[in-house]
Amino acid sequence: MSELRETRLEKAKSLKDQGQEPYALRFEPSHATAVLQRDHADLAKGEERQFNVAVAGRVMTRRVMGKLAFFTLADESGTIQLFLDKATLESQESGSFLQITGLVDSGDWIGVSGILRRTDRGELSVKVQTWQMLSKSLQPLPDKWHGLADVEKRYRQRYLDLIVSPQSRETFRRRALMVSAIRRWLDDRFFLEIETPVLQSEAGGADARPFITHHNTLDLPLYLRIATELHLKRLVVGGFERVYELGRIFRNEGTSTRHNPEFTSVEVYQAYADYTDMLELTEQLIASVCEQICGQTRISYQGTEVDLTPPWRRATMHELVQEATGLDFETFADRQSAVAAMTSAGLEAPAAADSIGRLLNQAFEQAVEVNLIQPTFVLDYPVEISPLARQHRSKPGLVERFELFIVGRETANAFSELTDPLDQRQRLELQQARRQAGDLEAQAVDEDFLQALEVGMPPTGGLGIGIDRLAMLLTDSPSIRDVIAFPLLRPESRSKADPEGTVTVDN
Question: Treating both helix axes as pointing N-terminal to C-terminal, what angle do 229-237 and 447-455 enclose, rounded to 10 degrees?
Fold first, then answer.
């Protein structure tokens, strides 16, 4: 590698000595390569078209055959062949053919101008008349046939992955279009996107361990937000009836195919609505975005057909657990009897699950979650695991909450929001007690948020959707790292020592 780099440095110096700047200031292409391929598909083999073009991109491959050379040039839209004829180039600029064939390597960025030609083999080409080095690459590209076989290197050096993998570029293009489509859908329905703080004095809105930082000037401990929920609710208290934010969230947890400590979510709040309204909104939003990005609502994910055509299945957590295990948690008189039944059914009952409601959730996670392949709304969660959701209007011990599962993964979470400040205080104090007892994911009491609730919050429905998991679904990506451009990784030295490379979690 060091020898190759030295050779390329020498070539950069030679370019300079010959009056060619190896790192140009600018270049103005006239066309994208995909546009030329589309608009001149009718050009016959062996013919030229006196149509002047200027294109720029990275040289991907090169073949030099005596007085002719053929380069493949790639821009963001696609590729086109460069046809280099010594006679043509030297009639334009003395020595130019020797320069471009001798000093340009695969990986270099160049700009060329010329006319169009269809080769005898049928390849649309730019017959180059002039060329310019735009940026000399000092490192060789990965092998064009095998790309990046090292999966970790794909994530660690994403720029190389994007250069050699059109599929990776398409994944991130689709993700960007998906995010734009979500924003458009919400904007068209009069939701306002309002930004909320990333640095917060209290980290709330989810059960998660936060990252802790410090503001030096104010000598103030701060947290990176684990959710946007509590500040968006403050906006509803202030009079905004439809608000959302699509942004980055930070949780101090391990990594897996479904988790990255830094991820993206969209949270939506609508005054005068409840969780049934959020259910309809979720279904319509995701189906609409899927149709825009994938062209239809029936898609394939890792070889399995997934039908996102509404309506989707709706079932309570109790119903799904009973269906999968035969256990009816509504019949258990106490925790002890629930533990005995779970053990008999081959399920684990961890000590941290200190109530029937928490045991119900454990049974769901162990026996149900992974099998929810088609979109399923799981309704009516235990109150113990839902401290920000309103108590169910007719089912004691439960809250008006749903989670959406697709391909065995939680994709969305929604509540009828808790607006009673006294009930909310009691719930958060219970959370804080768990935190003080050692549960690092339990929430703290946010006094300012409780003060806002005491000012008065109207009935409200709230929704959160995991953007990364939705992107995985719509791009047929098996890992969250495939849809996050720069995922968090261990330092490379530690990663080599530990081939697994990650601390995994499964929650």
Answer: 30
* Tens digits of residue pLDDT in 200-228: 999 999 999 999 999 999 999 999 999 99
Cα–Cα distances in Å, from 184 out to 19, 147, 188, 290, 364?
Answer: 50, 36, 6, 14, 35
Are the CB atoms for 272 and 458 separated by under 8 Å?
yes
Note whether 49 and 23 are within 8 A (CB).
Answer: no
Which residue's entry shows tokens 């991820």?
263
Share of the chain above pLDDT 90, in %: 89
Using alpha carbons only, give the angle 427, 431, 434 rounded to the nearest 5 degrees. 145
Give the containing element (helix H, strand E) for 250. strand 242-250
- For helices 335-344 and 356-367, the axis angle rounded to 10 degrees is 20
**pTM over the 0.90 mark:** yes
Report d(CA 265, CA 248) in Å as an integer: 7
Q: Which amino acid is present at 437?
A: A
pLDDT digits (tens, 9 = 90+) for 11-53: 999 999 999 999 999 999 999 999 999 999 999 999 999 999 9
Core vs surface per residue 4-41: b (16+ CB within 10 A) or e: eeeebeebbeebeeeebebebeebeeebbbeebeeebe
